[in-house]
TrEMBL record:
<keyword id="KW-0804">Transcription</keyword>
<dbReference type="GO" id="GO:0003677">
    <property type="term" value="F:DNA binding"/>
</dbReference>
<dbReference type="Pfam" id="PF01381">
    <property type="entry name" value="HTH_3"/>
</dbReference>
<dbReference type="InterPro" id="IPR001387">
    <property type="entry name" value="Cro/C1-type_HTH"/>
</dbReference>
<keyword id="KW-0238">DNA-binding</keyword>
<dbReference type="GO" id="GO:0005829">
    <property type="term" value="C:cytosol"/>
</dbReference>
<dbReference type="InterPro" id="IPR050807">
    <property type="entry name" value="TransReg_Diox_bact_type"/>
</dbReference>
<protein>
    <recommendedName>
        <fullName>HTH cro/C1-type domain-containing protein</fullName>
    </recommendedName>
</protein>
<feature type="domain" description="HTH cro/C1-type">
    <location>
        <begin position="29"/>
        <end position="83"/>
    </location>
</feature>
<dbReference type="InterPro" id="IPR010982">
    <property type="entry name" value="Lambda_DNA-bd_dom_sf"/>
</dbReference>
<dbReference type="GO" id="GO:0003700">
    <property type="term" value="F:DNA-binding transcription factor activity"/>
</dbReference>
<keyword id="KW-0805">Transcription regulation</keyword>
């Protein structure tokens, strides 16, 4: 029996993007950022990502990877748990 080669990434056409979840997470990031008085560009620099990427995350146009979530939480000086709890409460509010 011959082994099949391992292919990296998702199969063509597959997606894990959830618009409601992405929007709730983005709103949570924006709320925590503005609460701390940090500009979007400053937060992006602190997190080590592009400002345009941060904008897409905040608008819910992009679902960040786990690594980016950790970077954003670190830049906001909060735990990932706090960031996720904020996103979860916004998601629940949107569903209600």
């Amino acid at each position: 029996m011959q082994k099949r080669p391992v292919q990296r990434g998702r199969p063509v056409g597959a997606t894990t993007f959830d618009a409601e979840l992405a929007q709730a997470f983005g709103a949570a990031v924006r709320a925590l950022r503005t609460e701390r008085g940090i500009a979007q560009e400053t937060l992006a620099n602190l997190a080590g990502i592009e400002r345009s990427h941060m904008g897409k995350i905040e608008r819910g146009e992009h679902a960040p990877t786990l690594a980016v979530i950790f970077k954003i939480a670190g830049a906001l000086e909060c735990s990932t748990a706090v960031l996720m709890a904020e996103a979860e409460s916004r998601l629940q509010a949107a569903e209600a």
